[in-house]
Write a structure and sequence with these properties.
The chain has 127 residues and is mainly beta. Helix content is 0%, strand content 53%. The strands form two sheets. Strands 2, 4, 5, 6, 9, 10 and 11 form a seven-stranded mixed β-sheet that branches. The chain has a four-stranded antiparallel β-sheet with strand order 1-3-8-7, with no helix packed on it.
Length: 127
């Protein structure tokens, strides 16, 4: 699966952005997907993930209630709606696909569980 993320930009605190990730390949619908972010000097962290069948989602505590991950398997797209943005959300955001096709249980939660990465899109939140 090849991935292309977009939608980043500069926004004021309290604002919203919607990140999009376009995936290539006929098997996109069989992969769990995730959004990671990496701020300068910090490790890459999982922000949100969604199971290939969409019935399970995961959110980091820092974004719960503000971010929503969704996917459109017919369009090979995954989205991250980010509301009430805070300066600490500033980072490069990456979309990523599970290393395993049709994971039987749960969703991947660590970077090593993911096998394909997009190029990243920068989100900057000003105070």
């Amino acid at each position: 699966v090849q991935l292309q993320a977009s939608g980043g930009g500069l926004v004021q605190a309290g604002g919203s952005l919607r990140l999009s990730c376009a995936a290539s390949g006929r098997t996109f619908s069989m992969y769990c997907m995730g959004w990671f972010r990496q701020a300068p000097g910090k490790e890459r962290e999982l922000v949100a993930a969604i199971r290939w069948s969409s019935e399970i989602t995961y959110y980091a505590d820092s974004v719960k209630g503000r971010f929503t991950i969704s996917r459109d398997n017919a369009e090979n797209m995954v989205y991250l709606q980010m509301n009430n943005l805070k300066p600490e959300d500033t980072a490069v955001y990456y979309c990523s696909a599970d290393r395993i096709m049709k994971r039987v249980l749960g969703i991947p939660l660590v970077p090593d569980d993911f096998g394909s990465w997009g190029q990243g899109t920068l989100v900057t939140v000003s105070s």
